[in-house]
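Researcher: We plan to redesign the surface later, but first we want a full-length starting point. C-alpha cells attached.
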C-alpha cells in the first residue's frame, strides 16, 4: 500500500478525465546481446497548460495533466500572484484542441495587485525562470516569512527516501517524471505529487498542502537537483528543510544560507550530504 496519505481537500472543479497521465506507444526494446522485440511502452503525457487570471493569459507551462488545481495554486503562490489559497475564488479547467486552459478567478484586491505586476512567461519542461529579462528580475523569497527550521533527523530523511518509490506510480510506469513529497518530522510521506517538470511537481505539492491547510512542520523531498528555484519555492512556501536526491548548485547553496533553509542533497539510501543548516542528529551548523 502506498504510504502517501493526506490527500488535499479539493475546493474547486474536479479535473477532467479526458486527458490520461500516460499513453501506450509502440516501441522496440533493444538488447545489445540478443535480438530485440516489439513492445508497448507507457510514456508520460506532457501538454501545454495556459494559466489565465481573469481574462488575461499569464503563463503557458508544459506539464503533466494530473492534479492541475494543485499546480495552479502552488504556481500562483511561488510566482507571487497570491499570498494564500483564499486569494483564489475558483479554478475552471477547459480542455481545448492544443492543451488545457486554467481559468483562475482571483479575489478582487488580489487581481488588482496582479495587474500592477503582470508579466508573460512561456515555460518549458523543467524551466523555472523563462520570461525574465534581467538578473534583477530573479525571484527573491525575502519577506515571505521564512521561519527558522525545526531540525529534521537523519533517520527521518532515510525513512522518507525508503518510501519515496511507492509514492511515484507515474514514474514507475514511464521513468520520465519527477516527484515532490511532503514528509512529517518522522519521515512519513504525507503528500506526494508527480509531473514531467521538477518545478511543476513542487508547485503541485505546495498547492496541495495549501488547499489542505496543513502546518509547515516537516520537510520537502524532491527527486531532482536542488537548483536555486527549488530553494526559492521552498522558502516561499515556508518549508525549513529541503532534501534533494540530486546535487545542488552553488547558487542554491548560497540562497539556502541566506534564507535560513537546511539543504540536504545527493540523498541516497546509504547517506546524504548536508550543505547548509543543521540536522537533529548532530546539530552541527554549516557556516561556510
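Model: Full-length starting sequence:
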Amino acid at each position: 500500500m502506498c504510504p502517501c496519505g493526506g490527500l488535499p481537500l479539493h475546493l474547486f472543479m474536479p479535473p477532467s478525465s479526458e486527458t490520461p497521465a500516460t499513453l501506450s506507444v509502440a516501441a522496440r526494446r533493444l538488447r545489445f546481446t540478443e535480438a530485440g522485440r516489439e513492445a508497448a511502452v507507457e510514456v508520460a503525457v506532457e501538454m501545454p497548460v495556459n494559466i489565465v487570471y481573469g481574462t488575461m493569459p499569464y503563463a503557458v507551462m508544459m506539464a503533466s495533466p494530473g492534479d492541475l488545481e494543485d499546480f495552479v495554486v502552488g504556481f500562483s503562490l511561488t510566482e507571487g500572484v497570491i499570498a494564500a489559497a483564499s486569494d483564489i475564488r475558483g479554478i475552471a479547467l477547459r480542455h481545448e484542441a492544443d492543451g488545457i486552459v486554467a481559468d483562475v478567478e482571483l479575489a478582487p484586491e488580489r487581481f488588482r495587485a496582479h495587474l500592477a505586476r503582470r508579466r508573460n512567461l512561456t515555460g518549458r519542461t523543467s524551466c523555472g525562470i523563462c520570461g525574465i529579462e534581467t538578473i534583477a528580475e530573479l525571484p527573491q523569497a525575502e519577506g515571505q516569512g521564512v521561519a527558522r527550521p525545526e531540525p529534521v533527523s537523519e533517520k527521518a530523511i532515510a525513512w522518507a527516501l525508503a518510501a519515496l518509490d511507492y509514492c511515484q506510480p507515474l514514474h514507475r510506469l514511464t521513468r520520465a517524471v519527477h516527484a515532490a513529497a511532503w514528509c512529517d518530522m518522522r519521515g512519513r510521506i504525507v503528500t506526494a505529487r508527480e509531473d514531467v517538470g521538477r518545478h511543476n511537481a513542487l508547485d503541485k505539492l505546495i498547492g496541495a498542502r495549501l488547499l489542505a491547510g496543513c502546518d509547515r512542520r516537516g520537510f520537502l523531498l524532491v527527486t531532482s537537483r536542488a537548483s536555486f528555484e527549488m530553494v526559492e519555492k521552498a522558502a516561499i512556501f515556508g518549508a525549513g528543510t529541503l532534501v534533494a536526491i540530486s546535487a545542488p548548485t552553488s547558487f542554491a547553496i548560497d540562497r539556502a544560507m541566506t534564507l535560513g533553509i537546511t539543504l540536504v542533497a545527493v540523498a541516497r539510501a546509504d547517506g546524504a550530504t548536508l550543505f547548509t543548516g543543521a540536522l537533529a542528529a548532530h546539530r552541527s551548523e554549516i557556516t561556510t
